[in-house]
Amino acid sequence: MLQQSKGLIVPKKETSPAATFVSLNRRYEYQMRLKEIPSLVRNWGVFAGGTTGADSAVADKCNFSSETTAAVAGMNLSVARRTLGGCGNKTFGVLAGGNTGAVSAVADKCTYETETTAAVVGMNLSAARQYLASVGNSTFGVFGGGSTGAVSAVADKCTYATETTAAVVGMNLSGARHSPASVGNKIFGVFGGGNTGVAALDIADKCTYSTETTNAVAGMNLSIARWALAGCGNTSFGVFAGGHIGAAVSVVADKCVYATETTAAVVGMNLSAAREYLASVGNSTFGVFGGGNTGAVSAVADKCTYATETTAAVVGMNLSAARSGPGAAAPCTPGSL
User: Fold this and answer.
1) How many C-beta atoms lie closer than 10 Å to residue 106's C-beta?
2) Which of 22, 108, 119, 315 is the most buried (most CB within 10 A)?
3) How does pLDDT run across 235-258, given as a tens digit for each residue?
4) Cβ burial 119-148 (10 Å sphere, 16+ → b, else e)
5) CA 240 to CA 233: how far, in whole Å?
6) Helix, strand or coil for residue 318?
C-alpha cells in the first residue's frame, strides 16, 4: 500500500498480526500493573470492634501518611464484638473470633479496595474463641491461642486464596494461653506472652510458615511476663508493647530481633501511657498502638518509629471512640506484602 509524504509516494509500513498482538498484550500488561498500584501504595490500617462498655462493630481507618484516623461505616464488622484477632494480605484483612456476648468463631473479610466488610463462613475459626492473636504472610494467616471458655493452644490456618480456615496441629502454641500478642515477617511469626488462666507468661513461640510448625524460642521471651499486650514491627524486628503485669497495667515495650532471635526491653519505645487490651497496625516505618484500657477505655494512638526506637502519642491518630479489645489489620504490614 502506498501513501503520500511531502509530495513523494512511499510505501506505507504495515503492521503484522503478530506485531499487533504483541503491542496489545504489552498494553494489557501495563494496564494490569496500573490496577495493582493502589494496593501497593495503600498506607493505612484498620482498627475494628472492641468495647466502649458495650460491644462495638465500628471500624476506624488509620491513615499513616496524614496521621489521621476516622470511622468508615462500610468497613464495620458484620456483628459487634470485642477481643478478636486480625491478619491479612495487601488485598484484604480477616477479623475473626472475639466475644459478642458469647465467644465467637465469626470471620469477617475486610476488602481494602472497596472499603467494605462482610462475614465469610468458610473463614470462620475451627472453634469459637476470644483473646487470640494472629500472624501471617501474603498467602495465609494463623490465629493462635485464646480462650474458648478454657485457655487454648489451637492454631487455625486461614488460607486467603480459598477463603477457608482449618486447625493445623503442628502450628499449635507450645502451651495453652489467652491474650498473647504477635509480630512477624513473611517467613515466620512470633506469639509472645499471654496468660495460662493462672499466671502471666513471658514465653515466645516461633511459628514457621514453610514447615507449619511452632516451637518455643527462649531467647525471644519477653523481658517481663505479661498478657493483653499488642505487637507490630517491620521485616527485621517486632515490638511487643503494653499489657498487664501482676496487678498493674504496663507501658513496657520489648524489641524482638528476628535475625538473632533475641528480645530486650527498649525504654524509648514504651507506650505514652500504660494500657492493656490494645491493638496495633503499621507499615515498614512505624507501628501504631491504638485503643485499649488504662483502667478506663482509651482512644489513644501511639506512634512507634522504628528507625529512632521512640514512641509518642499522636492525637490525630486516636480512634474515633475510646474502646478496649479491638482487632486490627493492615495492607502494608511486612508479612502481608
Assistant:
1) 21
2) 108
3) 999 999 999 999 999 999 999 999
4) ebeebbbeebbbbbbbbbbeebbbbbbbbb
5) 9
6) coil
Q: pLDDT by residue (tens digit) across 135-187?
A: 999 999 999 999 999 999 999 999 999 999 999 999 999 999 999 999 999 99
| Residue recorded with cell 498502638 | 289
* All three cell numbers of 54: 458495650
Contact 88, 44 (CB under 8 A): no
Q: In what order do the strands lie in the sheet with 204-208?
A: 181-184, 188-192, 204-208, 213-216
Smallest Cα–Cα separation from 216: which of 204, 198, 226? 204
Q: Find out whether 46 and 329 touch, Cβ atoms under 8 Å.
A: yes
Structural class in CATH, domain 32-336:
mainly beta
pTM attached to this predicted model: 0.88
| Dihedral of alpha carbons 153, 189, 315, 318, sign | negative
Rounded CA-CA distance 221/236 in Å is 17
| Distance separating alpha carbons of residues 107 and 275, to the nearest angstrom | 26
Which residue bears the cell 475451627?
126
How many whole angstroms separate alpha carbon 280 and alpha carbon 17?
54
User: In the block, which residue shows the cell 488462666?
Assistant: 197
Nearest Cα neighbor of 254 from 212, 311, 314, 313 is 311
> Taking a C-beta distance cutoff of 8 angstroms, is the pair 119, 159 a contact?
no
How far, in Å, CA of 285 to CA of 43, rounded?
A: 11
Q: Which residues pair with 188 in a beta bridge?
A: 208
